[in-house]
């Protein structure tokens, strides 16, 4: 398989959030702030990429019958590392979203990629898949956070952007706005992919 295509497929055609529609819980919960979205993306990367590598490296010695508990154990180890690093270096933001960082251990995207890709492919391809899924997840999360925070609070990463006279639309920082934004992005991406397929 073309190496760049592995990354591209995870970012656009098989985007974990917009196309496969998994991992929505954390996206909805932490996408009302750019800082939270960036920290969540960091934690996701710290778990997804090394977990893919370890699962792929061990795939030939992992008994098929107990593969899922082993996947979860590997993911849990890296989730702990990600949580400790987040707490050490980004504690103020970590305290707001720590529950969702800790729940990365059962994130459908990470377990799904371990099962569907890393367990079936080589280490380098699994590394690239981890990068692609991290980028795909992070782009969606940060894009939604920028819009929600800007409209809902008038700020970006806590910095005031809108003029003082601006009246924030508080609905945008509530969970329903997350679903609305995902719906809009899904529609836009599906339209793009269908037009691209039509040209072929």
UniProtKB/TrEMBL annotation:
Q: Which residues cross the membrane?
A: 12-31, 37-58, 70-90, 96-119, 131-151, 171-193
Question: Where would you find this protein in the cell?
Answer: Endomembrane system
**A Pfam family this chain is assigned to:** Rnf-Nqr
Q: Does the keyword Membrane apply?
A: yes
Q: Name one GO cellular component term.
A: plasma membrane
Classify the main location: membrane
Q: What is this protein called?
A: Electron transport complex protein RnfE
Annotated organism of origin: Caldisericum exile (strain DSM 21853 / NBRC 104410 / AZM16c01)
> Gene of origin?
rnfE
């Amino acid at each position: 398989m073309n190496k760049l295509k592995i990354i591209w497929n995870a970012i656009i055609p098989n985007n974990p959030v917009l196309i496969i529609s998994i991992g929505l819980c954390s996206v909805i919960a932490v996408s009302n702030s750019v800082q939270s979205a960036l920290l969540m993306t960091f934690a996701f990367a710290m778990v997804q990429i090394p977990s893919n590598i370890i699962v792929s490296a061990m795939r030939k010695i992992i008994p098929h019958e107990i593969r899922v508990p082993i996947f979860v154990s590997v993911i849990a180890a890296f989730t702990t590392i990600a949580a400790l690093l987040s707490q050490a270096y980004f504690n103020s933001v970590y305290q707001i979203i720590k529950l969702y960082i800790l729940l990365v251990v059962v994130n459908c995207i990470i377990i799904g990629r371990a099962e569907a890709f890393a367990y079936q492919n080589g280490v380098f391809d699994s590394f690239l898949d981890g990068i692609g899924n991290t980028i795909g997840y992070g782009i969606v999360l940060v894009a939604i956070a920028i819009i929600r925070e800007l409209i809902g609070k008038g700020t970006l990463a806590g910095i005031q952007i809108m003029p003082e006279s601006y009246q924030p639309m508080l609905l945008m920082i509530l969970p329903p706005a997350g679903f609305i934004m995902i719906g809009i992005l899904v529609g836009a991406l599906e339209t793009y992919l269908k037009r691209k397929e039509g040209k072929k």
